[in-house]
Amino acid sequence: MRVDRPDPTDEPGDVDLDGNARRFDKPDTSGKDLEWEVSGAGRPGSPPALPDAALRIEQTLGYRARVEAVYRQYDIDRGHNTAEEPEREAVTFVGRRVEAEDRHLRLQTARYEALDRPPYAASYRATVDAVYDAHQAETAESTVRETLDSDFCSWDDVVGGRSHSSTESAERQAYQVHYRPLVEGEYEDARWSWDSGQPVLRQPSDGPEGKLLHADADPLRVFGPASETHPEAFQEAMTRLGEAGVEVDLRPGSMSYSPAAVGGQPGRLILDPEASYGAVLHEMSHFSDDELAGFPGLRYWLEDSTVTAGGESRAYQAEIDYANSIGEPGIADQLEELKAQRIGQLIGENDE
Amino acid sequence: MMNNLLDPDPEFQELDISELRSIMSRNNESVLRRGRAVMELGRRASSDPALLQEVSGMIRARENRQLMTVGTTSVSQLGTAGLIAGGSKKAIDLAAELVQEWHGDEQSDFAWLMKSSGIVWPRG
Asked: Which own/partner contact pairs does A24-33 have at CB distance under 8 Å and 24+ positions apart?
């Protein structure tokens, strides 16, 4: 579980109950005025059939459009200037017109240069171009797939610890030289402290019960969102959730899997559109635990802190293993720290 | 019958109010036990006006709103669910007022929690 819960003091939350409190006109029925749903129906149905190449591009762009809508709504909800275009990547549909401006352009460019993989950059470009002409979509998609297969698969081999070629070693060195400084810049943006080696909470914590803010709790996000770094794995995860009937809600700043209040029903995933692959692994681990237990309901997870802490440990370990696999022991250490904090919250010192 | 969050919690039903308060007051207590304690207090407060006031303070407390039990369910949300589970009109009205003080995301999370327990929330 990881949640960026806004600080209650930041909002006009100190509502004057006399003046602003919500009132109900219904007569006193001793609680019987609550409506009970007949069933837990309404879960999303099965996901669409396996898309062809063009449809896959449509889905990706559709996803990005949904992300933009979520960010836009998020800004509106918080009273931010709704007229401003978001700083992040903007994908809007006007007919077939797409405007794309990557807010992490520096990182993306550096990534391509450092890894010396112009084919990937070319295929990325082809994907963008393809939306101008639907007839080019399938060809572009094939190009992307071919490049991704030969590009990131080989990179995965490197980071996965398997034997690698001298070319790949050179790529790794280039990564260290060119990409690392930019990543460190991103860390500064995310308010990580390199002095202490600890995540810096964006809002001061009052003590050991201080919240874990998402940006601090997802250190792997500096490498980009899972939907872009691991599009196939991300899509597989979404498909799996859809097939299980899990609600998936996009919400910037939050990432969490919540079991349903009633046993026998799947839960809900709050998904930060910018969540890293590691964060997705984390939450999918929680979903897997809930599924494996037969969706026993929230009460089950509240009753045994040992079981719940075990699930949290597995979820963090998935992230930690991934961080180590891509050669980021520093991030793995940060995740270990977050894991210890969270498990401490779950177990408590006075737990029986 | 499937396990429902709003059903009585047999283990915590056996604790008296002072024990439940004690759990809530310990800083290093398991967040899961704190959530169950405030939920049980909320349930009992449904028929105890004095306790109702005390529980509303616990639910309003910043740390309890920030403290997550499982998923997006905070300690405060469980206390509010306890008020609803208690069933009196006063308790349910208080729950509605408390929810109105929350951020939109918190309200949305609580609405989902209620929906998944079979209750239409917010009430129409």
From this structure: A24/B93, A24/B96, A24/B123, A26/B123, A28/B89, A29/B89, A30/B87, A30/B88, A30/B89, A31/B46, A31/B84, A31/B86, A31/B87, A31/B88, A31/B89, A31/B91, A31/B92, A32/B87, A33/B89, A33/B92, A33/B123
* Planar angle of CA B99, B100, B102, nearest 5 degrees: 70
Helices (H) and strands (E) in chain A, counts: 14, 3
Query: Which of A6, A256, A301 has its CB closest to that of B72?
Result: A256
For residue range A254-280, list pLDDT tens digits in order: 899 999 999 999 999 999 998 999 999
Whether A265 and chain B come into contact, CB under 8 Å, resolves to: yes
> Once rounded to an integer, what is the mean pLDDT over residues B106-117?
96
Work out the angle between the directed axes of helices B75-86 and B104-116 (0-180°, nearest 10). Answer: 50
Query: Does residue B122 have a cis peptide bond before it, meaning omega lies within 30 degrees of 0?
Result: yes
* A41, A261, A282 from A265: Cα distances, Å: 10, 8, 21
Tell me the C-alpha distance between A123 and A146, whole Å: 9
The whole-angstrom separation of Cα A67 and Cα A272 is: 9
* In chain B, where the domains are located: 11-116
Tens-place pLDDT, residues B47-91: 999 999 999 999 999 999 999 999 999 999 999 999 999 999 999
Count of beta carbons in the 10 Å neighbourhood of residue A146: 12
Out of B46, B71, B88, the one facing A259 most closely (by C-beta) is: B71
Residue A227 near chain B (CB below 8 Å) = no
Q: Output the six-digit token pair for A341.
A: 């904090």
Q: Which spans in A131-165 are helix H?
A: 137-159
Nearest residue of B to residue A28, measured between CA atoms: B89
Residue numbers in chain A where pLDDT is lower than 70: 1-64, 67-68, 70-216, 350-352
What's the pLDDT tens digit per position in A7-31? 555 443 332 222 222 222 233 334 4
Measured torsion, CA atoms of residues B61, B63, B65, B68, in degrees rounded to the nearest 10: -150
B37 phi, psi to nearest 5 deg: -65, -45
Can you give the pTM of this predicted structure? 0.63
This complex has an ipTM of: 0.96
- pLDDT over 90 at B27, yes or no: no
Residue B58 has, within 13 A of its CA and on its CB side, a CA count of: 32
What are the residue ranges spanned by the domains of chain A? 50-189, 201-352
A255 with A316: CB under 8 angstroms?
no
CA distance to partner chain B, nearest, from residue A24 (Å) = 7
Residues 20-79, chain A: which have Cβ within 8 Å of B?
Answer: 20-24, 26, 28-37, 40, 77
- What is the pLDDT, as a whole number, of residue A200? 34
Count interface pairs A-B at CB distance under 8 A.
201
